[in-house]
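Q: Please design a sequence for this.
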């Protein structure tokens, strides 16, 4: 079904950035997007790519290995892909308490549950014997872990991280990220570690401390020392915290990271600091400079639709609705999603084909939309500036014949060659 109309009127009620606030973000909040909540501001138009799959995430055990190479104190641990490997790792560690952690690209693992076992244990378990390590590994490997960030579909657990336990006296929060409003790297710290930092930012924003780093001077010791004092650290804990911040800063800048997050950063009973959990995300545009980091990509943790979209240079994020969207320009795409919400439906995706997309690129975008089994209708909203409306129309018609269009399609075209597009 085709319904092609032309209009020069923008239906966005307010600026496109304002519209963004009306659109909820289901599933996982990408690290880069979460960081803006902590900083107290939503991303601006230039920063939309931060939550559009343009950053590469890695697993906890990979992040800890990278950070350890920069001097970050982390507990001893080993990755395991089988129960036998997990048992071997636990024996090698020889710790009285071992922690077995499911490795997926999502937070909330400990509070999550495995599919079919909503009342069961989560994806982070303590083991006080080799037998308990074996039981935990058997219960997690090959199972689907569901957390608040994975959505109901969950993620299949293929790898575990077996780690030595430690004596936890305090739990802190630490992250480094880019503040787009100032164009500077920012250290974010809080005495309330071990919980979702978004909740802390919303409930007690005064307990989140920030230090902006001047790019000309780099990280200064007084900045990390001042944060340590505000966090209530004393004596040698202050020096230990400075070393942790320095390690995180060096890793961030050397590896072109998008974010480094340590939650929790624990103070042990002996007064040592350890990164008990670690997350890292990297700017994909800089991965060509870091082939060793690019090798850490786990495509099993990525949406196959988003992988295909990336191959064609499309900005795509799968959501949980049933109305597929194809739009050019991030602002117009967000406004289109808001319009769908205002009409009582849910967008199935964010898809920005860009301002100068080719026929092949548009056809690929259309195939991705059609391939989503949740999609019950498609809305194409194109304002042709650099993009020509006749190219869009040709690509849509060709792709619909190729894929066998089986859902209603509504196309709105405006701008360059709109009459030719309508004629097609």
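A: Design:
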């Amino acid at each position: 079904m085709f319904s092609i109309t032309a209009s020069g009127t923008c239906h966005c009620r307010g600026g496109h950035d304002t519209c963004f606030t009306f659109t909820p973000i289901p599933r996982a909040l990408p690290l880069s997007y979460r960081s803006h909540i902590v900083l107290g501001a939503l991303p601006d138009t230039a920063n939309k790519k931060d939550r559009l799959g343009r950053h590469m995430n890695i697993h906890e055990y990979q992040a800890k290995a990278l950070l350890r190479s920069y001097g970050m104190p982390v507990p001893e641990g080993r990755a395991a892909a089988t129960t036998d490997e997990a048992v071997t790792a636990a024996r090698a560690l020889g710790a009285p308490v071992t922690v077995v952690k499911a490795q997926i690209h999502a937070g909330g693992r400990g509070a999550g549950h495995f599919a079919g076992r909503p009342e069961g244990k989560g994806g982070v378990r303590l083991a006080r014997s080799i037998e308990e390590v074996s039981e935990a590994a058997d219960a997690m490997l090959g199972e689907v872990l569901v957390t608040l960030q994975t959505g109901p579909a969950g993620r299949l657990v293929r790898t575990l991280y077996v780690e030595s336990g430690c004596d936890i006296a305090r739990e802190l929060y630490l992250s480094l990220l880019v503040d787009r409003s100032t164009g500077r790297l920012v250290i974010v710290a809080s005495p309330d570690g071990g919980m979702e930092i978004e909740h802390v930012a919303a409930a007690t924003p005064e307990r989140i401390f920030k230090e902006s780093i001047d790019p000309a001077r780099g990280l200064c010791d007084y900045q990390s020392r001042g944060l340590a004092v505000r966090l209530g650290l004393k004596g040698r804990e202050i020096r230990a915290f400075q070393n942790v911040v320095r390690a995180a800063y060096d890793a961030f800048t050397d590896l072109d990271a998008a974010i480094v997050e340590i939650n929790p950063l624990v103070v042990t009973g002996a007064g040592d600091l350890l990164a008990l959990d670690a997350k890292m995300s990297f700017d994909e545009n800089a991965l060509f400079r870091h082939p060793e980091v690019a090798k850490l990509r786990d495509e099993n943790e990525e949406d196959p639709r988003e992988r295909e979209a990336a191959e064609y240079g499309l900005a795509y994020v799968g959501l949980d609705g049933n109305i597929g969207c194809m739009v050019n320009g991030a602002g117009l795409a967000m406004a289109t999603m808001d319009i769908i919400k205002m009409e009582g439906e849910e967008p199935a995706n964010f898809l920005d084909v860009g301002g100068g997309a080719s026929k092949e690129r548009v056809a690929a975008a259309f195939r991705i939309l059609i391939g989503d089994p949740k999609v019950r209708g498609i809305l194409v909203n194109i304002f042709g500036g650099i993009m020509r409306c006749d190219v869009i129309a040709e690509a849509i018609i060709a792709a619909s014949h190729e894929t066998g269009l089986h859902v209603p399609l509504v196309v709105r075209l405006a701008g360059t060659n709109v009459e030719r597009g309508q004629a097609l």
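Q: Thanks. Anything notable?
A: The CA atoms of residues 370 and 404 lie 9 Å apart. The radius of gyration is 24 Å.
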